[in-house]
Amino acid sequence: MTTTEQTRTPFQERLASVSHAGLALSPREQTITPELVRWYREVIEDDHPWYTGPSPFGGPVAPALILHSPTGAGGRNGEWFLKNLYGNLHAKQAWEFFRPVMVGETVVNRALVTERYQKRDREFVVCQASLEDTDGALFARCTHTQSFLTDTEQRAVVVDRAKEQQGGRRFDLREGPVLETLSGPRRVITEESCNRFTGERRNYHNDLDESKKLGFGEIVVQGTYITCFISEMMTRRYGEGWFLGGRMALTFVNPLWAGEAVQAGGVVREITAEGPLRRAQLEVWTAKDDGTRTIVGTASALLTE
């Protein structure tokens, strides 16, 4: 009798009912079709010529974040999110890109919970997704950290426009050398665009009533929507060096509300050696018109010149 055929112990039965390190999510497969790429180009407003025509990789290449939310693909959030969804927030997201996905390729998406911990009044669950081709070769890796309130009875407003102006939530540019400044286009995120990005399922990313049920006064723009603007900025600047070795580690520090404008920005802090190659190390962010930052973090890409 194999281990998988044996009767589970009481501890294994208990683990089966909770989100824990080692919990494997059901795998998903998705073919990157021209229609999916067209959806991305229209919603993100990113019409890079490589997505529909020749690229350094041969034919059309998919945007680096074409699968922007791999740990939630196909409704998998329900497999690892905690039960108390009131006030839950996407806390962090990190990406590592190893090689591009060509339009027409099939991506195998495997995910695993890697950590669960508590910090102050929130519990954090970390889930990592590996995006592979059908032979098991790695395209990219994504690490998603979601936070949940430990107080299951709390029903106060979690965050609103007033709270985001409080001290400690401004996240200004830190001091240090600036070798180059990057910026992406300013984008206004409407309720309609939230619908197109998030999909038909009603939730706090596209429905005001659902958002209020979870402790938010307005529609919360999906965090992975905004990460696409950072990836767009990095793709425009670094091209092949973003698809072949790009990295970013982002923290979501303030919500973006539907109807607000946002713009990606970044500064190059240093150029480091990576064997015979060089890597640009950046501080990156997204910010509203009043300067309030919604995402802060780091990114890097290989230099091709």
Structural overview:
It is a single chain. Strands 1, 2, 3, 4, 5, 6, 7, 8, 9, 10 and 11 form an eleven-stranded antiparallel sheet that branches. The chain has helices at 10-15, 34-44, 77-80, 191-198, 208-213, 223-238, 240-243, and strands at 28-31, 89-97, 106-119, 122-132, 138-149, 180-183, 187-188, 247-252, 261-274, 277-287, 293-302. The longest helix is centred in the last third of the chain and has 16 residues, at 223-238. It is built from seven helices and eleven strands. A hairpin with a 5-residue loop joins strand 4 and strand 5 (138-149).
Compact summary:
The chain is built from seven helices and eleven strands. The chain has helices at 10-15, 34-44, 77-80, 191-198, 208-213, 223-238, 240-243, and strands spanning 28-31, 89-97, 106-119, 122-132, 138-149, 180-183, 187-188, 247-252, 261-274, 277-287, 293-302.
